[in-house]
Design a protein that fits this description.
- The protein is an alpha/beta fold.
- The chain has a domain of 243 residues: P-loop containing nucleotide triphosphate hydrolases (Rossmann fold, 3-Layer(aba) Sandwich), CATH 3.40.50.
- The protein contains 14 helices and five strands.
- Strands 2-3-1-4-5 form a five-stranded parallel beta sheet.
Length: 352
């Protein structure tokens, strides 16, 4: 368990409480297209922390935990492990190219859900000779209940980006051929997603200890990376000497940039920070600013389309999206209530 910090938290990532050395797992999240992959790559460049390229099984295993039964039984741990390696969506190959090795590690773990799924990330860290592990997935911002149920001592880094830039990027990716799993209407989906991501992050910030929640702004990371990384390293109680390889992350990047992550293999630049002004119409910018203006102001994102009339079609599409998400989240809430009543086994990791 972490020790409580000796001084209050700082602002938006430039200062933060220094915690004592810990083995707590690290999670990175935020609205999609907010720089989570960039931060993950930087963190993975630190010699004390291993953060694999995005996997997709930790939250899913938690949401379907009723399937696994009592994980103190080796047979149930094996069943869960095989589900992870056989399910293409899991991307388990990003932890190790040997699925049998992953299964063996998970079966050998203590009998709780957090211990079993955490064993896969521990394996990744061991393969890279690093003492700590982490994981990055934008939707962790919306699933922190799962994260902290399985890893009560976890540390979470939340990334905030100008919503106009995030929305423009979400729409651009959504319109690429073959982007299954992204959004049919990227403009309104992105607007709704940014708001929900921030609401959840703010809610959990109020519930967690200061040494468990740290927030940075993407734009500040680009403008003054050394200062922001110093804040993150202090928050995570990592060796400050590791900041240098974090700053030169692009020289050892382990994933392809391509059209999805074009900046991850290049030195940092602020040239694209306001690219959204060319990618969104004035009416679209006005919609984002009207919906998210209060939260934008908290981070210093100034409006540029005040007074611009918003077409009724945009408003209708956003209302439709919000109704759709309310129904979807209500179903998930009901499913979670059922699991809390019926799943009586421990989920918290015995050790991380």
């Amino acid at each position: 368990m972490l020790l409580r910090a000796m001084r209050p938290p700082g602002g938006l990532g430039l200062e933060c409480p220094r915690v004592t050395a810990t083995s707590a797992p690290v999670f990175v999240g935020g609205c999609p297209r907010s720089g989570t992959t960039l931060v993950r790559t930087m963190l993975n460049s630190h010699p004390e922390l291993a953060v694999p390229h995005e996997t997709l099984f930790l939250v899913n295993a938690y949401r379907s935990r009723g399937r696994w039964g009592d994980l103190s039984e080796a047979g149930n741990r094996r069943r869960l492990a095989k589900w992870v390696v056989r399910r293409k969506k899991s991307r388990a190959g990003r932890l190790t190219p040997d699925p049998d090795e992953l299964v063996a590690r998970m079966v050998a773990a203590p009998g709780t859900l957090g211990s079993v799924v955490g064993a896969g990330f521990r394996l990744y860290a061991d393969r890279h000779d690093k003492p700590r592990w982490g994981d990055k997935r934008p939707s962790y911002a919306l699933n922190l209940d799962a994260v902290f149920a399985m890893f009560p001592d976890a540390q979470y880094v939340n990334i905030v980006r100008d919503p106009r830039a995030a929305v423009a990027s979400i729409r651009k990716i959504s319109e690429q051929p073959g982007r299954v799993g992204w959004y049919e209407d990227g403009l309104v989906a992105g607007t709704d997603l940014w708001e929900r991501s921030q609401k959840e992050a703010e809610r959990w910030k109020g519930r967690l200890r200061p040494e468990q929640f740290h927030e940075i702004q993407y734009e500040q990371l680009l403008e003054d990376p050394a200062a922001v990384l110093e804040g993150i390293v202090g928050f995570l109680a990592l060796d400050p000497a590791g900041i240098e390889p974090m700053l030169t992350f692009h020289q050892t990047v382990d994933i392809k940039g391509g059209n999805i992550h074009p900046l991850v293999a290049k030195p940092l630049t602020t040239e694209t920070v306001r690219k959204w002004e060319q990618e969104l119409t004035r009416e679209e910018i006005a919609l984002v600013e009207r919906e998210l203006g209060e939260r934008m102001a908290r981070y210093g994102y100034e409006p540029v389309a005040s007074g611009v009339a918003i077409p009724s079609d945009l408003e209708r599409r956003l209302r439709h999206r919000k109704r759709f998400m309310r129904r979807k989240l209500a179903r998930r809430w009901l499913g979670e209530q059922k699991l809390r009543l019926t799943y009586r086994h421990s989920v918290a990791a015995v050790n991380s």
